[in-house]
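WARN retry 2 of 3 for item q-0093 after timeout on previous attempt; input resubmitted unchanged.
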Amino acid sequence: MNDWKPSTEAETIAIAQSYLEYQRVNRELKIIKEEKYFRSLLNDTKARFINLETRSYHPYIRYQKGRVLRLFQINRLVNTFTQEQQTQLNSIAKTSYDDTYYSINFRHKHLMATESYGAFLWVYSIFLENMSQIQNKPDYLFKAIRILEEGVQCLSTLKKIENIITLGNANSKLAQEYGLAYLYTSDIRYLTKVRASVFEAKRIFECAHKPHLEHVQLELLLILSDVFMKNYIPTNLIRRYRNLKPIPWYLRAIENVIKSEFFKIEGIHL
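OK item q-0093 returned
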């Protein structure tokens, strides 16, 4: 929070209120069971942020708006919305992240050399990658990659970083996005980038004495690169893969491609 540096007392209050909005909405969504209350909370939340945005142009408020709207996007009750209503919600959330990014780059450049900016880029990239899957728009994935590359660069060049795990997580996420980009393009250069990001994430987690973090994701991405670069011994790869169970749902697309390609090459079901 300190990185965001509000310039006036009114701005400080608006930022604090936007911060509390996330906690309020998260708490309310955990107990809401009916569509009418879900819609009411969403409308109330949008009205609150309209009020906050009229009081301050600070990018943190737009950032929090995007994070709060994301809570609605991932709630099961959003499925009661029409496709048009879901698209509108997605658009408002995306605009909030986009506005945060451009506000920092053009009006609050002092934030660009902070850990908070690097962390924001990581969250922004995750949002874009999710949107690429929900709306089947590869362009969002490639934008997510560009944003996260900037985030990793930002965090890597800081003289001091309070939470080194954030940098490890950013590298791990970047490796996953490179893997997805390979599935879209079959461009072998993305696999080279996968490996570089995986090894950097592993190095950071080991330095933080937490080598277990993101282990399944990082190992599966290495297996992806090994299979398509034909850099493996079949028995070793089978053992590595089976040791990863269970594999999270968000890695299922990568897992399925690995299994299909390995069967095509070796005639063996993983």
